[in-house]
Amino acid sequence: MPASPDALHIGARVVVRYRLEPAETAATPGRPTMTDAVGDLVRRDDDVLVVETRRGRVSVRCDWVVAVKEVPPAPARRAPAHLALSVPDMARVSAPSWGAVERETLGAWELRASHGFTQRGSSALVLGDPGLPLPAALDAVERWYAVRGLPPRVALPGSTGFDPGSDPVGAALLARGWTAGGRSHHLTAATATIATADPWSPDGPRVDVTEELLDPWLEAYRRSRTVVESAVPAVLGGSPRQLFGSIAADDAPPQHPPVAIARLAVAHGWAGLGAVWTDPDHRGRGLARRLTARLAAVAAADGIRLVHLQVEADNAPALRLYEGIGFERHSEYVYLTGPTRS
What we know:
By secondary structure, the protein is α+β, with helices and mostly antiparallel strands. The protein contains nine helices and 16 strands. The strands form two sheets. Strands 6-7-8-9-16-10-15-14-13-12-11 form an eleven-stranded mixed sheet, with helices on both faces. A five-stranded antiparallel sheet has the order 4-3-2-1-5, with no helix packed on it. The mean pLDDT is 89.
């Protein structure tokens, strides 16, 4: 899907098509006037894009860019496409699918804060080199959250069933008195598989899909959990692109909150499913399945071949639903939380 350079996240894997300098092409008759750079976006400002390619860094003037497109990272192993990424690459792919009020980098780490709203929106994603010795990096994380009046929290990705104490960062945090808390499974699938999970029938409940966060959808989301109002716009609207799906009750009046909702974000060539909720009085009718299938179908029509979502490890009904329609377990996250320091 073509994208604006302004919508791309640093670290995204991209292909940039751009014009060559006129002097270059004029000196060699028959030489192409355009070329491509494929790699990780490491810098973006008003004047230039810098892409880290296999042959080194390529700087491209923004006014010479013809098209730019996010592409999935290269697979790490032979496997179905939705399982082929390494654990770190899967974490990087999924990170922009949930917004945050603040994002700041510490080397390759990403610090996120959203006034405490949601674990993903208020935790540091630790991947790669923070650019400091580990003790100093952890000190910096603790200070960053303390300034914001939040407990320090880290999202630590690993393979399914991993022990956070076996990871160097996890071991260092536990030694500091941090505690391991919630564990979430990272599930992945082909969008084409999920799109066919619900046999589409015109007589079934209608699914409405919008790119705008509308008030009825938001009111249903408020019913599904306790929200921090000041953080909601940035968290729900903070991805490169997002879609909001909903199903209204039969004969519901206009502007009435829907009885089932879901959100789909698009980043790094993947679709990320989240915020799936069904009103308790309407459960057992397959509404979540229908919503998930419809959003996957929209993503597939846009050329997005792969989809992911995170499910808390103790949410057995959700795991049964998603694994029953074709999702498979790729990896996990464990959240570690440190003591609040005065």
